[in-house]
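Practice problem: predict the structure.
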Amino acid sequence: MSVTAYQNKEAMQARLREVIARFAKINENFLTPVPGLSIYHRCEPTAPLPCTYGPGLAITVQGHKQVMLGDDVIDYGPGQSLVTTVDLPVVSHVTRASIQEPYTGIGLDLDVGLVTQVAAEIEMAEPLRETSRAISVAELEPALLDAVIRLVSLIDEPRLMPQLSVLIQREIILRLLTGPHGLYLWQLVSAGSPGKQIARSVTWLKLNFRKNFPVDELARSAHMSPSTFRQHFRTVTGMSPLQYQKKLRLQEARQLMLNENHEAGTVALLVGYESQSQFNREYARIFGEPPLRDIKRLRQEVQPGRKMPGAAG
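Answer:
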């Protein structure tokens, strides 16, 4: 990158920080009026939090964040973008933030239908050769950064927002498909690709995680042998199908106990466990504490009536 291009990018990042600062709410996740767009603000580092990232684009405007997917540890900060292409149970936390320089970030949900539609209108640069992980980090290109600034600025233009937000989001998707994140998005929408088949299986699991299922049947529905299915599933999500199901069950159980005051025994049955002792063991393994102690701590940290944060900003 030339000195001039670097200076232009720095100026654009400063512009995005200025725009975000007008709308960011202290230590909160803020769902903006722009469809699918959220703003995140933290004045201090946060504890690692298990949550689910759906298909989306995340940008750190200021500060640093870390995301853990299986054994992978991903750090990203200002000037970088993160894209996820399927629902991923991850552990994320803000690693650098202060009152003087708070962490600020934005998250944009990606409509898979719109991604498919935009992808159908352009030609893929080269055919897919292998399945890739459903999460990627890349340097934020100036053209994409410019589109993001224009999208966030629509908060100030409510009359034009419904029409322009769709156009700008199409541009953002187009730039993602043709930029460094393109390979990861293409595998989501390319007909017949292993990545798309796994994405369908992930969608099924998200809707049916309470059920017990033979992995071989899930493999057959994806038109793969069980061993091939497991290999592709682990490549895309960073974990096995059963590990994926377990994390979805435990995260749902945690939300039900925190937000709806369910007892641990009741929740264990609701999310698909037949043994409460097994539920307690696996819960403590994932969240670090038994259910009762973990929820008590969370209630002291999370404001009443506010759900745990779970988005990707």
